[in-house]
Amino acid sequence: MPSIAPIRKKTLSDSVKDSLRKLISEKAFNEAGKLPPEEELARQLAVSRITIRKALTDLEQEGLLLRIHGRGTFVNPAARQVKVNLSGMLEFGSVISGNGYRPECRLVSVDEERIPASVGEHLGTGKGGRGIRVEKLYLADDIPAIVSVGRIPLHLFSETPARTDWQEKSNFEVIQEYTGRMVVRDWIEISSLSAQEAGEMLGHPCPLKAASVLMIQAVGYDQNSEPVIHGGALYDTSHIRFNLLRHAEG
């Protein structure tokens, strides 16, 4: 079953940005990629001009839009080439579908463990802290494409989540349901690993067929800026591609 995107509280501006991103991906604007004036967008989306202006400014900073004085707001042509934007928190099923494949999630294992010291430093569990380790395999058109390992401090849970919850829901959803904590931001580190190194990280042969894989490690923080999950994800880059639009400073 494909993983399910976590539920997060959204502002009205965030909802407007989601709507505009969808319109951009569907090439809903004219051939020149010009957006309607702010007043017209506000009317169509039934929000204020202030909300529209905030959403447009954010999307411009992300590189999706170009605002040209005296001419209007346009879709950045480079944005049409973006499959999966690396600038936001990533949901694995969306990463796979964004690359044009059919996603499927398989739960490999759920175990209670002593959290490794290197991970405990990020989670603040101290030496010998206990946690839940959740490993999942994500397929792209039935081909292994992503392996994820999530570690969550055991003390966050007053009751142990059912195995079916880990299978049917994202780690973020399980954390929110059982602890009331919502992951709102994360810190990431990107590196590459050989197949052998990936196997050593997993504790078993890596199911990805690539000779080397991309690894993204992340620490997720809740609404109180406390770390609640450490994730390590391995990507087969022969199937998964990321994009990042950047703009010059100043």
Task: Tell me about this structure.
It comes from Enterocloster bolteae 90A9. Keywords: DNA-binding, Transcription, Transcription regulation. Residues 10-78 form the HTH gntR-type domain. This is HTH gntR-type domain-containing protein. GO terms for molecular function: DNA binding; DNA-binding transcription factor activity. The chain has 250 residues and is α+β, with helices and mostly antiparallel strands. It has two domains: 10-79, Orthogonal Bundle (Arc Repressor Mutant, subunit A), CATH 1.10.10; 90-234, 3-Layer(aba) Sandwich (Chorismate lyase). Helices cover 29% and strands 28% of the residues. The chain is built from eight helices and eight strands; from the N terminus they run H-H-H-E-E-H-E-H-E-E-H-H-E-H-E-E. It has helices at 12-25, 38-45, 49-62, 92-98, 117-123, 163-168, 171-179, 195-202; strands at 65-68, 72-75, 103-114, 130-140, 143-153, 185-194, 212-221, 227-235. The strands form two sheets. A six-stranded antiparallel beta sheet has the order 3-4-5-8-7-6. Strand 7 and strand 8 (227-235) form a beta hairpin. Helix 1 (12-25) crosses helix 3 and helix 2 packs across helix 3 (49-62). The longest helix has 14 residues, at 12-25. The chain is globular. The N and C termini lie far apart (46 Å).
